[in-house]
């Protein structure tokens, strides 16, 4: 026997009760419960829609309720970061009312979160034409500007994180967009697959800015860890494209974490076709310690530097260097002695083009390998200060400092900001 349909008044009352309940859940920000309740509410409304076709007013009211419920459902899902389902809910709402203000804002915000800047811009552009936009014009214009800015950044890679760096990586982290520069994934000689440059990349140039696809954090925000500057780094994440970058003890790229994003820049000039590599750990360590580190990481390092240092040609020099580092811990002294040795060697032979000797290999493995290490920059600054500098030398030294600085911080720092930073570290005292 068919169950009798409830009279419209009763049905309306039931819906009203459910409506109050879901609104309360939403206001209390109980997202999971809101999702359940809204889904139930929508199903209930949808079963009643066929019974209301004879009453256009009632039908339209019901459809409006469903549209709003889908919109709120999307909001609740997006709060739980279920963006794909949330987008589907937005589209359901927009099917019923293509310019639904609340849904357009919600969809725009979701798309922004998913780094779909131009589609997000499209949503906000429609929303701003709604009369309700007047009361929210500041927020809406903010979103429009943000979309335009991020769209530009994702196309140009013209990031500037000067303020944040100069502020010691504290405070508001810079607004970043996903950006993929001239790179591709290919088979690597180091191990498995690797990331390769498809064009020459100048030192300091950011060529990959990407958001973590998964994070696990102890603190609310993953804070930046740049060479020990931020000791409060408590988080792990998976950055898909960056995860193809192999380790090298002579790396040519550097990472900088900002929120969920990682910015990758060239810490040395990278040639087209060259593999992009990171230092997974402190590569200023001597060979024996680095071997321990790679063992901890679960692999045996197959980078060029390790292969050279393991080779017979420079074992003696490397041993001396290791003893020097282990006993003296005077990093500056070691590096300067090595540079001095290299200079003398060059002078005695009168040319740079001869066969690369052991000492040069040693110097290269220390200075070149870790040139993007902030400690090297500091040692260099101290050396410049100690030696006084002066006259034309200043300019050359400043250029070297700028190059080292770009290796450390990247071109993501404006030139003037970089100058200020270097001056803060003491470069100005000699001018
Ligand atoms: C983040 S993945 C790099 C991408 C990896 N090659 C792939 O094909 O997916 C890190 C892994 O690559 C390998 N690897 C990275 N650098 C290496 C190196 N210098 N020598 C040997 N294996 C390395 C190790 O197996 C390491 O666990």
From TrEMBL:
PANTHER family associated with the record: TPR DOMAIN PROTEIN (AFU_ORTHOLOGUE AFUA_5G12710)
Naturally occurring in which organism (per UniProt): Escallonia herrerae
Pfam families per the UniProt record, alphabetical: SET
TM regions (residue ranges): none
InterPro entries recorded: Gramillin-biosynth_MTr, SET_dom, SET_dom_sf, TPR-like_helical_dom_sf, TPR_rpt
Highest rank taxon of the organism: Eukaryota
SMART domains (alphabetical): SET (SM00317), TPR (SM00028)
Residue stretches making up the SET domain: 181-281
Name of this chain's protein: SET domain-containing protein
């Amino acid at each position: 026997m068919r169950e009798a349909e409830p009279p419209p008044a009763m049905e309306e009352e039931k819906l009203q009760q459910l409506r109050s309940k879901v609104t309360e859940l939403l206001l209390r920000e109980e997202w999971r419960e809101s999702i359940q309740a809204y889904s139930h509410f929508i199903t209930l409304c949808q079963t009643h829609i066929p019974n209301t076709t004879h009453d256009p007013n009632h039908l339209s009211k019901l459809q409006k309720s469903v549209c709003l419920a889908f919109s709120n459902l999307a909001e609740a899902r997006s709060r739980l970061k279920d963006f794909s389902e949330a987008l589907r809910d937005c589209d359901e709402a927009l099917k019923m009312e293509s310019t639904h203000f609340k849904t357009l804002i919600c969809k725009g915000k979701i798309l922004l979160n998913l780094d779909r800047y131009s589609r997000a811009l499209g949503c906000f552009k429609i929303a701003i034409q709604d009369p309700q936009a007047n009361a929210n014009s500041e927020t809406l214009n903010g979103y429009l500007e943000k979309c335009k800015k991020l769209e530009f950044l994702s196309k140009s890679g013209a990031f500037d994180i000067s303020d944040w760096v100069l502020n010691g990586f504290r405070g508001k982290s810079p607004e970043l967009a996903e950006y993929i520069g001239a790179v591709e994934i290919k088979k690597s000689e180091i191990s498995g697959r690797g990331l390769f440059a498809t064009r020459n990349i100048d030192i300091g140039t950011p060529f990959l800015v990407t958001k973590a696809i998964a994070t696990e954090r102890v603190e609310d925000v993953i804070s930046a860890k740049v060479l020990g500057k931020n000791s409060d780094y408590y988080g792990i994440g998976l950055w898909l494209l960056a995860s193809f970058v192999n380790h090298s003890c002579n790396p040519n790229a550097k990472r900088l974490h900002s929120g969920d994003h990682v910015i990758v820049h060239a810490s040395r000039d990278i040639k087209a076709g060259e593999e992009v590599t990171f230092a997974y750990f402190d590569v200023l360590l001597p060979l024996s310690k680095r071997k321990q580190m790679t063992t901890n990481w679960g692999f045996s390092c197959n980078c060029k530097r390790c292969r050279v240092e393991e080779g017979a040609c420079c074992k003696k020099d490397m041993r001396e260097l290791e003893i020097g580092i282990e006993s003296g811990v005077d990093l500056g002294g070691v590096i300067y002695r090595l540079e001095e040795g290299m200079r003398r060697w060059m002078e005695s032979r009168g040319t740079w083009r001869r066969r690369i000797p052991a000492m040069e290999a040693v110097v290269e493995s220390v200075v070149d390998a870790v040139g993007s290490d902030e400690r090297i920059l500091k040692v260099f600054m101290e050396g410049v200060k100690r030696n006084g500098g002066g006259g034309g030398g200043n300019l050359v030294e400043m250029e070297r400092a700028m190059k080292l600085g770009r290796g450390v911080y990247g071109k993501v720092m404006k030139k003037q900001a970089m100058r200020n930073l270097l001056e803060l570290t003491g470069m100005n005292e000699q001018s």
